[in-house]
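lol ok so funny story. i was supposed to be doing the assay writeup but got distracted and ended up predicting the structure for this chain instead. priorities right. anyway since i did it might as well share w the group, maybe its usefull for someone
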Amino acid sequence: MLDGTEMLKLLVGLKQAGDIDLAWDEEVLATVCEPQDQPRVHAMAAIVHDLLGAFDYAASPEYLATREKLLTPENQREAAARCGRSLTELLTADEAYALIPAARHPLLDELKRLAASFG
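and the output, tada:
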């Protein structure tokens, strides 16, 4: 029978392979745990399924901490200057769209339209 670490490895492997449903298969369970352990295996499988199914690295503490390190005042100033430069190049390049949040892209479109209307 599997210990806790081995069970975690099995369940993560099943989820990654798209076979997490096997954690409820009686024949599979008979080979990896005692009958009285099945409710715990089911609970573990449900948690693994939920955690890996909803995983979003961009929302992880690790990613957010890395992002915060990049937001020094100097980096912020450099990015603001880059954004200004990208606006001056709006008619010939799309870098501004990578720097301005998507919700504000209609403003960029309007600015581009207005700038293009000059001869």
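The mean pLDDT is 93. The chain has seven helices and no strands.
back to the writeup now i swear
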